[in-house]
Amino acid sequence: MTRTSRISLGRLASVAAMTAVAMGVSGCFATQQDIRVLQGDISLLRTEQATADSARRLQLDRVIRDLRTANDSLRSLGSSFIRFRSDVSTNLSSIDQQLLQVQELTGQSQRRLQEVRASLEERQGTPAPATPGATTPAGATDATPGPNQLFQIAREQMMQGSNASARQGFQDLLDKYPKSDLAAEAQFYIAETYAAENNTSAADSVYARVASKYAGSPRAATAMYKRAVAAQNAGRTDDARTLFNQVVKKYPRSDEAALSRDRLRALKQ
pLDDT over 70 for what percent of the chain? Predict the structure, then answer.
């Protein structure tokens, strides 16, 4: 209630009291002047009350409009954020796909080279690794497939979906030629066969072995990045963040490091 309304109420009460006193003293009705004053005060009070109500309605309407505007802004901001996250996710998927394509093209060249080397090994006949204490009969040509032959056979098995057979072939290569320049590749593809079977724990373990045992190989960065992506997809955000940071720190110039930086920025959103 406004100050004017309080004054009007006071005047109204005063006039009413005076009228009551006059009526009590004289035993008759109030004068016409008193009634007109009282009516004027009542009219003024009603006008002030109507004005105050109108002002409150205007204030309330402004508050409601402001709230609606704020809600619209929040909804618009929320929609923009959702679109942003969707765009980031799409871009990351696109970059991942491009990386896979580049790796596949590189892999094709490597496979072609391995085929040539495997063919040479087959023609020349690679002798089997010597067994301590064993003797080879005179004139015998105890030959075994070379590392490139074993790798090519295992890779073909993997491409045909025979993951267990491929895994055994890659393991044979590691057992017979542990110092071969294909050892890191063989270990990496063992992890890939587990991943193809959705055996994430085994794949993660072998990827970790690639990153630790063959840290100087290009496959180390790829293996670590794949571990990080798998952790992110599984909802282990802290583990994923740690692994992405390790890729950036250990292999800053690699394609996987660039992808890891993008993933880390997305995790901060």
Answer: 65
Range of the domain at 152: 105-126+145-267
CA distance 93 to 269: 17
Same domain for 117 and 248?
A: yes
Question: pTM above the 0.70 mark?
Answer: no
Instruction: Tell me: do 159 and 195 sit in the same domain.
Output: yes
Tell me what pLDDT residue 91 has.
Answer: 65
Which neighbouring-strand residues pair with 127?
143
Q: Are 117 and 152 in contact (CB under 8 A)?
A: no
Q: How far is CA 31 from CA 13, 20, 21, 22, in A?
A: 16, 11, 12, 9
Dihedral of the alpha carbons of 118, 146, 102, 228, in degrees to the nearest 10: 170
The pLDDT tens digits of the residues spanning 15-43 come to 555 555 444 544 445 677 877 777 777 88
In the structure encoding, which two tokens stand for residue 90, read together?
Answer: 């799409």
